[in-house]
Specification:
The chain is mainly α. 64% of the residues lie in helices and 11% in strands. It has helices at residues 3-65, 72-78; strands at residues 88-93, 102-107. A two-stranded antiparallel ribbon has the order 1-2. The termini are far apart.
Length: 109
């Protein structure tokens, strides 16, 4: 085999290795992107479900007691509301006992 033939084979193998490496890196980047998107989707879903749960518990309290609960702790203690307080923060603001409170859920960072 001549030097030129060996050099062409080496270049061909190196080019193939570079193509495979680039495809592998692209696959990893796409995988990380998809995992991030899926995680973001489920995080938004969890926030929505927690907010709905707090609203339902507040309405249940209003229908049973005639007033909206004064705070989240009241719902946790008396209406079996559960959520991961280490991961989520619930903003709960009451205006009056007969007005639906403002409820917002945020993910802690």
């Amino acid at each position: 085999m001549s030097y030129n033939e060996e050099n062409m084979i080496f270049r061909s193998r190196r080019a193939e290795l570079l193509r495979q490496s680039a495809l592998f890196i692209l696959a990893i980047v796409l995988l990380v992107f998809m995992v991030t998107k899926i995680n973001s989707f489920y995080s938004r879903q969890n926030i929505s479900l927690i907010k709905q749960s707090v609203q339902r518990a507040a309405v249940e309290c209003y229908s049973v007691e005639g007033i909206y609960p004064p705070d989240i702790d009241y719902l946790v203690d008396n209406y079996s509301l559960t959520y991961n307080s280490d991961r989520y923060y619930i903003f709960y603001e009451t205006f009056a006992s007969n007005v639906m409170p403002t409820i917002e859920v945020y993910e802690r960072k």
